[in-house]
Amino acid sequence: MGKKAITIFTAKTARELLKGGFTLIDIKPDKNDPDGKRSVFIFRNDENLLEKIKEYKEK
């Protein structure tokens, strides 16, 4: 496992990961959002995290 953390850009996916028991490390402002209203969610790269993200996106 290379990366220690994964950045999530949507609140919907972050919410699903939290419900699934994954660990949220931090919430930061999205530097790419010109309005400064969006946030990014930093999750610990636990086992099966990427598989769950893929699963949520297929819903």
TrEMBL record:
<protein>
    <submittedName>
        <fullName>Uncharacterized protein</fullName>
    </submittedName>
</protein>
